[in-house]
Amino acid sequence: MKLEDVEGYLLDNHSGTTDEQRLATLKREISALLERKVAGAFVEVGCYRGATAAYLRALLDLAGEESRPIHVYDSFEGLPEPDTIDGTHLAAGSIRSCQDDVIALHRELGLAAPIIHSGWFHDTLPAELPDTIAFGYLDGDFYESILTSLRHCVPNLAPGGLLIVDDYADVESNPAAWNGLPGVLAACEAYFGRARPLEVLPGSGDLAFGAYRT
Ligand SMILES: C[S@@+](CC[C@H](N)C(=O)[O-])C[C@H]1O[C@@H](n2cnc3c(N)ncnc32)[C@H](O)[C@@H]1O
């Protein structure tokens, strides 16, 4: 399937977790990362039904990187209990998927399925992350989930590597950023020990993407 067809399929069928801005930003950043010849695996921490993992696979395949592994992590029981800082936008148990959803989506798009790690991040990440990460997409929605993701992914990030944190709303830098999950920014500030620690990735609308580069 052509990349435009993969994009069209995801926009039509997975609009709850992806959109044109996210796809365009991922395409731009992954293309630059591959040009830099950064070593290591790709990881998605919080994969839900696999839409972003499938897009990453399509981008890698198009670049002739069929053998670069993608690891995905999810409870497949939905979200954990929110902290107070996470607000009331999403409840425990919501956004629930299963491993077969991830596999079926990849099959539908003619893509190889990722390596799936099922369980809570605090159980899987310490033992099951690749030693060298070139790119990570951190999309756990809640304070504790993002903090755990950063604690384990940042130390394994390769030189020249990139982590993108979804739902990172730095409204001082981008007042249009979607700000429905305030625990995400709070977790980044707690991990890095300073205010607004990530680079805000530009987007035309309400994109809320934070970037950490090594
Ligand atoms: C917004 S969805 C991810 C969407 C996906 N990245 C995409 O682009 O399609 C968030 C996912 O994170 C998972 N999740 C959040 N916190 C978690 C945790 N602490 N341990 C395991 N899974 C978690 C949820 O089960 C949910 O599937």
Task: Please tell me about this protein's structure.
The protein is of the alpha/beta class and 214 residues long. It has a single domain, classed as Vaccinia Virus protein VP39 (Rossmann fold). Helices cover 36% and strands 17% of the residues. Strands 3-2-1-4-5-7-6 form a 7-stranded mixed sheet, sandwiched between helices. Helix 3 links the parallel strand 1 and strand 2. Helix 2 packs parallel to helix 3 and helix 5 runs parallel beside helix 6. The longest helix is centred in the first third of the chain and has 16 residues. The termini are far apart. The relative contact order is 0.16. The model has no long low-confidence stretch (mean pLDDT 97).
Helicity range: 25-40%
Oligomeric state of this protein? single chain
| Biggest pleated-sheet summary | 7 strands, mixed
The CATH architecture assignment turns out to be 3-Layer(aba) Sandwich
Beta strands, count? 7
General shape: globular
Q: From N to C, what is the helix and strand string?
A: HHEHEHEHEHEHEE
- Label the structural class: alpha/beta
Going across the major beta sheet, what is the strand order?
A: 3-2-1-4-5-7-6
Point out poorly predicted stretches.
none
What is the terminal separation in angstroms? Answer: 33 Å
How many independent structural domains?
1
CATH fold label: Rossmann fold
* Ligand species: S-adenosylmethionine
* Percentage beta strand: 15-25%
Q: Please report the first level of CATH classification, the CATH class.
A: Alpha Beta
* CATH homologous superfamily identity: Vaccinia Virus protein VP39
Q: What is the mean predicted local confidence, pLDDT?
A: 97
| Cα Rg | 16 Å
